[in-house]
Amino acid sequence: MALLLSATPAQAQAPQTIGIQPVDTPANKANDPRARFYIVDHVAPGTTLRRQVEVSNDTAEAQNVALYAAAADVGDGAFTFGEAGTANDLTRWTTVTPASLRVGAGGKEQATVTITVPPDATSGERYAVVWAAVGAASSPSGGILQVNRVGVRIYLSVGSGPEPPTDFAITSLTGHRTGAGAPTVRAFVRNTGGRAVDLSGSISLRHGPGGRTAGPFPAQLGPTLGIGEGEPVLVSLSRGLPRGAWDVSMVLRSGSTQRRATARVALGVAAQKSRRLPFVLGAVGVVVLLAILVILRRRRARTVPSHLAGTLLTGGSDAQGTDTSSRRTGQ
Question: What are phi and psi of 273, to 5 degrees?
């Protein structure tokens, strides 16, 4: 939908800002939730693609909004934004008409994004962002203090034939604890398809200690996985989750593609009382053991023959060993 940027990209639109979002969804993407927020499509070389975007102004004043496309990329588990003026194949094919809009306070205006793919374009997926930018003046007559911009991502796959599949796999589920002791589930997800994927989802817990259930817990995502990439996905759980084995079920989605994984995972932290109990029992055990050793030594001292008493008084680390062997000889 809209990514709020104030000098650097953010992931949510704040109140009283400029927003931008697609207006129309192509028929072939009607079941793809991503197409409601981004421009996502697959076209053959030589195709011209047009999409409408709507720019909204939630501020109390009219705003002059600049519209343009800038390069983006997907790698290392992230969708990265280029600065204004950065170009790639997709931005060179993209124009936004008009290039600027005057949007009244509380108003909305539309613009057309046109992508003209050349006939000799090579196959592959390309990325860009259509930005709506507003400059904030430092004083009534002064210069620019900062530029705020919001954008709509473009994921454009180019190639003859059908669209490459969107697919990914959850390859592992394991239990962990943070340095602060909070239980977490760590999943590793790999993009096994031919399109970048933006993940959302959650996990649920069943058949835990005493038959308990818990969740669902939202996944802490963020990664946009490029083709062939893999990244971890972490899910934070309740600190009071009982220690033990649980059936963990994770569901992740990208667009209309959904994948599920289940595993029996050891999770949770023990209650404070349970963590102290082994220490208390251990301390009691040590005291009892020492008392038994003292009693046995006193008994041995009373039963040693008088002609060996000097052996027990010779001191050093071998005294008890000599005592033991002497008693066996006497027996």
Answer: -60, -40
